[in-house]
Amino acid sequence: MNPSSEELPLEVDVRAVRIVREISGVSFQLANPHDRKLEAYATENRTVISRTILKSLLDREADFLLLDCREPVEHGMVNIEAATLIPMGQLPERVTELEEHRERHIVVHCHHGGRSLQVTQWLRQQGFPKTQNMSGGIDVWAIEIDRSLPRY
User: Fold this and answer.
1) Residue 24 belongs to what H/E stretch?
2) 2 within domain boundaries
3) How many domains does the chain have?
4) How many whole angstroms separate alpha carbon 148 and alpha carbon 34?
5) Is residue 53 assigned to a domain?
6) Whole-model pTM?
7) Which domain holds residue 133?
8) What contacts 114, CB < 8 A, 6 or more positions away?
9) What is the DSSP string of 92-141?
10) 109 and 85 in contact (C-beta within 8 Å)?
């Protein structure tokens, strides 16, 4: 049964008005995705990075490596221009190509985020501590960040 406002005790109405008055002066602010302190917090010891923070890093031309671990045919269909392609299956034999990036921030992406999560975990085990997975992959990137990119 859904009581009407006439059936509610007066004290409930008074409490609700008091709560509304208390919070009406509160300022709710969302974190600025371009805040460098937020970026530092988000990248320090975290295995996942948001698309918004990645976009901010790309816009600022920050010093990091964007690694695409999809297959060449997928990369050919759609890609983020700044990304370096090393398919997941080739990574063990090509990991030496990443040696110069061992202490740099590395962001890995794939189609939906599954392969890149595996690559992120593997790279961390290989001694690349600042490696992160872009959540959602390039598919969600194309929905939320760059709608000009085709989806597959």
Assistant:
1) helix 10-24
2) no
3) 1
4) 22
5) yes
6) 0.72
7) 36-144
8) 137
9) HHHGGGGGGGTTSEEEEE-SSSHHHHHHHHHHHHTT-TTEEEETTHHHHH
10) no
Strand, helix or coil at 21? Answer: helix
Q: Measured between alpha carbons, how far is 107 from 47 in angstroms, rounded to an integer? A: 9
* pLDDT digits 0-9 by tens, 34-88: 555 555 555 555 899 999 999 999 999 999 999 999 999 999 999 999 999 999 9
Classify the C-alpha dihedral 82-43-39-134 as positive or negative. positive
Residue 145 one-letter amino acid = I
Helix, strand or coil, per DSSP, at residue 83: coil
Please name the residues in contact with 122: beta carbons below 8 A apart, sequence gap of 6 or more. Answer: 91
Dist CA 71 CA 29 (whole Å):
40
Contact 66, 44 (CB under 8 A): no
The continuous run of DSSP H or E covering 38 comes out as helix 36-43
